[in-house]
Amino acid sequence: MDMHTVVNGEDVKRGLERVVVGDGRASGVTASDVLAVARGGARIELSGEALTALAASRRIVDALAAEPDPVYGVSTGFGALATRHIGPELRARLQRNIVRSHAAGMGPHVEREVVRALMFLRLKTLCSGHTGVRPEVAQAIADVLNAGITPVVHEYGSLGCSGDLAPLSHCALTLMGEGEAEGPDGTLRPAGDLLAEHGIRPVELREKEGLALLNGTDGMLGMLIMALADLDTLYRSADVTAAMSLEALLGTDKVLAPELHAIRPHPGQAASAANMLAVLAGSGMTGHHQDDAPRVQDAYSVRCAPQVAGAGRDTIAHARLVAERELAAAIDNPVVLPGDTGSGAFGSEGGRVESNGNFHGAPVAYVLDFLAIAVADLGSIAERRTDRLLDKNRSHGLPPFLADDPGVDSGLMIAQYTQAALVSELKRLAVPASADSIPSSAMQEDHVSMGWSAARKLRTSVDNLTRVLAVELYTAARAVELREGLTPAPATRAVVEAARQAGVGGPGPDRHLAPDLAAAEAFVRDGRLLTAVEKITGPLR
One GO molecular function term (predicted)? Predict the structure, then answer.
């Protein structure tokens, strides 16, 4: 399926993009499309090509449903109950029942953007022409998304195989007009009432359609795509805060020389070093490591910052490759395959429905866990730099805890406690979910990926990394300002000035720190940190 983003005049007025689902192939979907729908509220349209592909694959399912031989998902039960042949009079009930019974999630509601991402990705696969649903089913998903209706999806219920069954079932339940959903205003209401208000007819499921709505890796993939977008910002931000810490510690920027990183040719490492060097350009503070307290080398947390951040960048690159492959996939079980004859992609004279294992979430689960490890390590090294800035025995002339009147004032002592607690949590979250597997469905589904769990903990890790970097920013900015008589780099000055304008307080007597830390977190999270830097450096890598 080809997908692209277009904009029309009416959507521009409302600040909305419009994503068009295209030519019936599963390829061509971009991460930007997912983000536009999940976070930007982009409107969705199904092209004529997509509707044609849907109708063609549905004809294959209808033809197989009319045959006397049982076909999995069309005229049989599911999972461990797949051995029963279901007669035509019970098949609509079968599809309704699988949605109702599988909508068995528990726990808090997951975020709106997660639900929108998983629904959009399921729609993408439906429109590939490999699932056999009718065009009106796909259109109903688009209509629900466009109406701003968000099904209630719970934290727990997915084992990541067969895909994200329970989360997708809760979304399918809304399409049927059952269960609860949030309206555009965020109010929780009966789904049937919300559909009626927006003129959306509840879907009456037919053969295979209930199963096709449930069987995909869409939740974990959506969360992976959003995490990658967030980490792109955070890793560049980490280069900035690391450079500011190096500067505040009067470290040397010679270790960032391109020729040093060229002899160990990891691309992420080179990019990170180049970013740090760009931030430090014109600094009057670097190179003072031989002044009052001579030291041969800076500590690892300073000197090896590009190596650690660079390894994380390369991990992100691998995860992005996996996400792109999964975006190009049509995940369902069973799938509709075209026939060997006929001029169209799905000729009415051919085609078959086949069981498969493509719903297993291992490829996505592994990289979700890998990213959590990288995030934990980046947070860990940032915390070590913060601690060094606060320790008078290692900060090379800075006051203890950067306090205004040490002993009377505690300075940033407890800010580092908070950062340390966040890093400890990051380390716990780095334990891989995908290393676990619990059999289900009477041992028919005897190995699962736990990819949804990996994705959920990664979201927490990304949030906590933002806070860890905010504390380093807050500390380094104060330390730079306390280095009287030395001139920081223009990029550092720009960051400090922008942070102060954003409500991040500077040096002084003790005060309530939580508001300052919250302001620093927002400054990092919404990209203002990078905006301030890049006005001086140009785009960072």
Answer: histidine ammonia-lyase activity
